[in-house]
Amino acid sequence: MFKNKKLLAINALILAALLFGSTFIIVKNLLEDLSPTTVVFLRYLIASILFLFSGGIPQREIIKPGILMGIFLWIGYITQTQGLLTTSTINSGIVTGFYIVLTPIFSKLINKSEIQRKNYIASLTGFLGIFLIASNNIDQLFGNLFTLICASGYALHIVMVERYIKGKNISQLMFIQSILGATLCLPFLTYNEIPNSFEFILPILFLGFIVNFCAFYLQLFGQRIINASTASLLFGLEGVFALLIGVFYVEEVLNITNWIGVGIVLFSIYFVIKE
Predict the structure, then answer these.
(1) What is the pTM of this model?
(2) What single-letter DSSP state applies at residue 187?
(3) Residue 114 carries which DSSP code?
(4) Alpha helices for the chain (secondary structure H)
(5) Under a CB-based contact definition with an 8 Å cutoff, are residues 93 and 242 in contact?
(6) Nearest to 274, CA basis, from 2, 5, 1, 6
(7) Cα angle 94, 68, 172; round to 5
(8) Torsions phi, psi for 255 (to 5 deg)
(9) I need a surface site. Which of 20, 36, 132, 145 has the fewest CB within 10 A?
(10) CA distance linking residue 34 with residue 181, whole number of Å
(11) How many angstroms separate the CA atoms of 11 and 5, rounded?
């Protein structure tokens, strides 16, 4: 029974990574007409409405965990979206993937988690693979401070989920997380863009419903069973999916080094999740 639950959790996290990886091109295109804060605010707002309907009014015990998760996720979102103004979709996905290395460290420091040696090894090799995927534009890799901050925010968010998800209502946690993210955007919002954003209703709805609602629900569902370090490694597939989507839909060209990087990421994940 546990193996079946673990397999279900792993599949949930892989599907979430696919949905997350699909966002880079969409967000990059939206940023040609909308500010980063407007994009983040709208997707948070849509998700918060959906989570309120699905989970109801949050219980008091949900508020603190939801706020902590929301703060770190908002830091990740806003810096990643800002970073997409100055870097490619592939590089953004890759630099963001640095949370693969950071998550086990944060998990051990904050949650006192016991991390197996193979998780550390796989995290480092997984990031090596991500580094090779980004080697086409390595000059942008280290220059993108926003996206590096984003990686720290996402790593801390995964660790907070690990800390608080057990026994909690997922939709209520996600409502607090989402409404906080929307609220934090308000001081930086470009209000005259809101009416114009209706021109981009389909991609905004995709980000709000498919990603901020469905993908994050899958993440929390999966992390009920999968520890933070393994979850972050599975989320490393986000960069791989972003890469493959770029190849097939934007006709980005990869070299042999990039494909070796993909293979290393996949091997690292298999190394951790195999029995």
Answers:
(1) 0.81
(2) G
(3) -
(4) 2-21, 23-30, 36-55, 60-83, 89-96, 99-111, 117-133, 138-141, 145-164, 170-185, 193-196, 201-205, 216-222, 228-235, 237-249, 256-273
(5) yes
(6) 6
(7) 100
(8) -105, 180
(9) 145
(10) 18
(11) 10
Residue found by looking up tokens 């993909």 in the block: 262
**pLDDT 10s digit of each residue in the chain, 275 long?**
556 888 899 999 999 999 988 887 788 788 888 888 888 899 999 999 999 999 999 999 999 999 999 999 898 877 777 666 665 555 565 666 677 778 888 888 888 887 777 777 877 787 777 777 666 555 554 445 566 678 888 889 999 999 998 888 999 999 999 999 999 999 888 778 777 777 788 899 999 999 999 999 999 999 999 988 888 888 878 777 877 777 777 666 667 877 787 788 778 777 766 64
Please check whether residue 228 is in contact with residue 162, taking contact to mean a CB–CB distance below 8 angstroms. Answer: yes
Contact 225, 6 (CB under 8 A): yes
Return the residue matching tokens 């990869």.
254
Q: Is the dihedral of CA 147, 144, 119, 214 positive or negative?
A: positive
Residue pointed to by tokens 């796989």? 122
Q: Specify the residue for token string 């997409």.
A: 84
Token look-up 């999968």 returns 226
Residue 123 token pair = 């995290």
**Structure tokens given for 153:** 């925010």
106 to 84, 157, 254: CA distances (angstroms): 25, 10, 33
Type of residue found at 68: L
SS3 223: coil
